[in-house]
UniProtKB/TrEMBL annotation:
Family of this protein: Belongs to the DNA polymerase type-Y family.
Residues the record marks as active site: E107
Catalytically driven reaction(s): DNA(n) + a 2'-deoxyribonucleoside 5'-triphosphate = DNA(n+1) + diphosphate
Gene giving rise to this polypeptide: dinB
Described purpose of this protein according to its UniProt entry: Poorly processive, error-prone DNA polymerase involved in untargeted mutagenesis. Copies undamaged DNA at stalled replication forks, which arise in vivo from mismatched or misaligned primer ends. These misaligned primers can be extended by PolIV. Exhibits no 3'-5' exonuclease (proofreading) activity. May be involved in translesional synthesis, in conjunction with the beta clamp from PolIII.
Coiled coil region boundaries: none
Cofactor, how bound (note): Binds 2 magnesium ions per subunit.
Organism: Dyella marensis
Identification of the protein by name: DNA polymerase IV
GO MF terms, alphabetically ordered: damaged DNA binding; DNA-directed DNA polymerase activity; magnesium ion binding
Entry annotated with the keyword Ribonucleoprotein: no
Length: 363
């Protein structure tokens, strides 16, 4: 199948966890709801649109969310309930295509290129959104486009409860005025580097030759050029299992190993929250291996990993193990690092893991 002939839908549930809470408890409707445990070490899993008006966002420390919105109602997450609703939504997707790639409990890509039940991808997206509303009493936003990265941008265009379509002949014109930060993989650090080159929009990025971008940024430079042209040949991959969940951060100023601990602990919170979503998600898998990633001031990437006899059971345990992995970095004590990341890998099925644990306990 030619990538240019694909019809991709990206469905994104609107403020999913918070919306489920508001649906199930009428007293929460219209109120700023933050799905998170209270406490200095907790992070926000989701925020209702009423809370987002105050600047509250997912993955934000809960204490900061409370400062931004003192009147927020904190609700502890119930991943079992969210997983049940996610299964309902997945069943709706399956009525229209077998090519479904879940990204999390609340979003997925659908390839409806060969779907013939409805006259167009747009009609399919509308039918899916209507069914979600009727059967779950929740809303979803959808993006329709010739490829995955454009569909994801489109689904965010008219949020909440919106639909946006990018047709093949509109791609170049649509992308040109967008800030380069809207492209997948372009974070604040990369955006700053592009700004230094006089590149603020996708159209300005497009004016640079692929070879010039590749010389400056390696293979990522060629990928940037492709994205500026609306090219994304990644196919929708049904039921792709997660290999690793992680969070990383690039510093404004390079740090020594000893200075990394607070950053490792903060990133461990984010990684643990992502792991909990994976454990509650479609695949229901848990990780056993802790990974510490470092990038040196001269751009060398180092990784250290550990598979403990007992897997981490909390964000705090994950942070302790990740911090301990620094002792395995055999570099001078004054070495500096521009990036640190904390990950979990080695995913196994929960049932399999529990069964193995029972065998060891009986032995």
């Amino acid at each position: 199948m030619s990538p240019t002939s694909r019809k991709i839908i990206h469905i994104d549930m609107d403020a999913f966890y918070a919306s489920v809470e508001q649906r199930d408890d009428p007293a929460l409707r219209g109120k700023p709801v933050v799905v998170a445990w209270r406490g200095a070490r907790s992070v926000v899993c989701a925020a209702s649109y009423e809370a987002r008006k105050f600047g509250v966002r997912s993955a934000m420390p809960a204490v900061r969310a409370e400062r931004l919105c003192p009147q927020a109602i904190f609700v502890p997450p119930d991943f079992g309930r969210y997983k049940a609703v996610s299964r309902q939504v997945r069943e709706i997707f399956a009525r229209h295509t077998d090519l479904i790639e879940p990204l999390s409990l609340d979003e997925a890509y659908l390839d409806v290129t060969t779907s013939t039940a409805l006259p167009s991808a747009t009609a399919t997206a509308e039918a899916i959104r209507a069914a979600i509303r009727a059967e779950t009493q929740l809303t979803a936003s959808a993006g329709v486009a010739p490829n995955k990265f454009l569909a994801k941008i489109a689904s965010d265009w008219n949020k909440p409860d919106g639909l946006f379509v990018i047709r093949p002949h509109q791609v170049m014109e649509f992308l040109a005025p967008l800030p380069v930060g809207r492209l997948p993989g372009v974070g604040k650090v990369m955006e700053a580097k592009l700004t230094e080159m006089g590149i603020a929009t996708v159209g300005e990025l497009r004016a640079f030759a692929a070879a010039e971008l590749e010389q400056r940024f390696g293979r990522w430079g060629r990928r940037l050029h492709e994205l500026s042209l609306g090219i994304d040949e990644h196919a929708v991959e049904p039921d792709r299992p997660t290999l690793q969940v992680s969070a990383e951060d690039t510093f404004e100023h390079d740090l020594t190993l000893d200075e990394l601990e607070p950053h490792i602990r903060r990133l461990a919170e984010k990684t643990w929250a992502a792991h909990e979503r994976e454990a509650a998600g479609t695949h229901g898998r848990i990780a056993r291996t802790v990974v510490l990633k470092l990038k040196t001031a001269d751009f060398h990437t180092l990784t250290r990993s550990l598979t403990p006899s007992t897997r981490p059971a909390s964000a705090e345990e994950l942070a302790d193990l990740a911090c301990a992995l620094r002792a395995r970095v055999e570099r001078p004590a004054d070495s500096r690092y521009r990036l640190v990341g904390v990950g979990l890998s080695g995913f196994v099925e929960q049932d399999s893991f529990v069964a193995q644990g029972d065998l060891f306990e009986r032995g």
